[in-house]
Amino acid sequence: MGSIWAVARNTISQALRMKIAVIVIMMLAILLPLMGIVMGGDSTLKGKLQTFVSYGLSLTSLLLCVMTIAVSTHTLTEEIKRKQIFLVLTKPLRRYELILGKFLGVVILDVFLLALFGGVIFGITYFMPRMIDADEKEVAKANDAFFTSRAVLTDPVDKKEIMKEVNKEFARRIKEHEIASDMTIARMKRVKQSIMAEEIGKVTNIPPGGTRVWRFENVRPANPDDILFVQYKLEAVSPGVDKLYSQWAIGDNRQAARDSKTRVGTYQSSDAVRTVQEFKFPSELISTDGDGYVEIVLHNPYENRTTIVAKELKLLYRAGSFAGNYTRAMGVILTRLIFLAALGVSVSTWLSFPVAILMCVVVFFAGTVNGFIVEAIGGLSKELAVVYVFTIRPLLWLLPVFDGEFNPTPYMVSGEFLKWSTLGKIFLVTAFIKSSLLLLGGMFIFHKREIAKITV
Question: Domains in the chain, start-ordered, CATH in brackets?
Answer without folding.
Answer: 2-148+322-368+400-440 (no CATH), 159-320 (2.60.120)
